[in-house]
Design a protein that fits this description.
Blueprint lengths: L5 H18 L3 H7 L4 H29 L3 H22 L4 H31 L6 H26 L2 H19 L8 H8 L4 H7 L1 H22 L1 H5 L6 H20 L1 H7 L2 H21 L3 H8 L6 H15 L5 H30 L1 H22 L6
Helix pairs in contact: 1-5, 1-6, 1-7, 2-3, 3-5, 3-17, 4-5, 4-7, 5-17, 6-7, 6-12, 10-17, 10-18, 12-15, 12-16, 14-16, 14-18, 16-17, 17-18
Amino acid sequence: MKKSLTFQYTFHQMAYWATAAGVVSFATAFLLQKGFAASLVGTLLAAGNLLSCAFQPILADRADRIGGNVLKWLTAGLTLISAACFVSIQLLPLPEMAFGLLYLLGVFAFDAMNPLMNALNVSYMTNGYSINYGLSRGLGSLAYAFAALVIGKIMARFGADWMVWISLGLLAVNGVMTVTYPNLNVSVSEKKQNTECCSIPVFFRRYKWYCVSLLGVMLLGMFHAMTENYLIEIVTPLGGDSGTVGVALFVATAIEALVLVYFDKVRGKISDNWLLKLAGISFLLKAVLFLAASNVMAIYIIQLIQATSYTFLSPTQMYYANNKISPADMVKGQAFITASYTLGCAAGNFAGGQLISALGIRAMLLAGVAMAAAGTAVFFLTVDKNDR
C-alpha cells in the first residue's frame, strides 16, 4: 500500500457535509428570509434536485471517458462554480429570479460533487492508497450535525447572509482539499480501460440488474426524506414540537456517526449485499413503528434504527456500485446510485406534502410503509444478481 489518505479524505468529507448543512439544509430558511414566496422556494429546490439527477450521470460519463486525474479537477471545478454563484448573490444587485436561479445553480454544482467524491475514494484505493471510508463518512456526519447547530444559531442572531459566508469559507476548504490530492500515474491499461467505457444508453443494457436495484435505493430515499422532512407533522399529534424534532434528529445523527466510524469493521463481517438487505428491513421496521407510535418517547426510540437503516444504506451504496460496475464505468455507477437516492428524496418531499394536505399524516405514514416494503423487496430480488 502507498501512503494513507484517510486524514485528507476525512477533512474533505467534514468540510463537504458541513457546507451541506448550510447551503442545502438552510436553503428554505435563507430564501424565505430573502423574501421568496414559499411556493417559489419549493419549485427552485425541486428543480435543483432534478437538475442534479439529470446531469450527474452526464458528468460521470465524461469522467469515465477521460480518466486519469479528471475526477480531482472536475470536483475542483464544481467547487469553484458553486462558490462563484454564492459570491454573486451576496455582492451583486440581482432581480429575484436571477438571485434564485444563481442559488439553484450553486446548490446543483455542490450536489454534483457527491458522487465524484465517492469515485475519488474508489479511484485512489484502486491505485494503492488506503482510506478508511467509514471513519471519514462518520466524522462527516458529525460535522454536519455541529455545523447545522452553529449555523442555525448564527442565522437566528445575525441574519441569513451569514450562512452563505460561512458556507463559502467551507467551500474554500473543499477546494483546497480537492486540488491537493496526489496526482495518479495513468498506466497503459487504464488508458485502454477509459476507451472501453460505455455510453449512458448502453449502461442501462449492460448493467440491467444493477439499474433495477436502483429502484430500491430510490424508494427507500423517498421514505427517508418524507419522514425526516415532515417529522414535525408526525410528532405534533403526539404532543411534540420543533424541539422534539431537534432532539429526534440529534439522536439519529449521533447513532449514525457512531456506527459509521466503525463501518469498515461491520463490513468485514457482513457482505455488501446483505448490508443493503438489512438497511431495507430496518427502513421497513422504522416505517411500521412510525405508524404505530403513540408518544414522543417512541419517536426517539425509533430514531435509533438509523444505526442500521440509512447508516447501512449510505456508505454501502459506494461499495455496491464499485462491486457491480466494471472499472471503465465506475464513475457512472456512482453517479447513478447517488442520483437515484436524490430523485427519491425529491419525490418523497413532493409526495409527503401532497398526502398530508389531501389525506392527513396517517395516509403519509401508510404510504411510507408501502415505499419501504417495496424498496426492501427490490433489494432482495436484485442485489445478488450479477451483470458482469
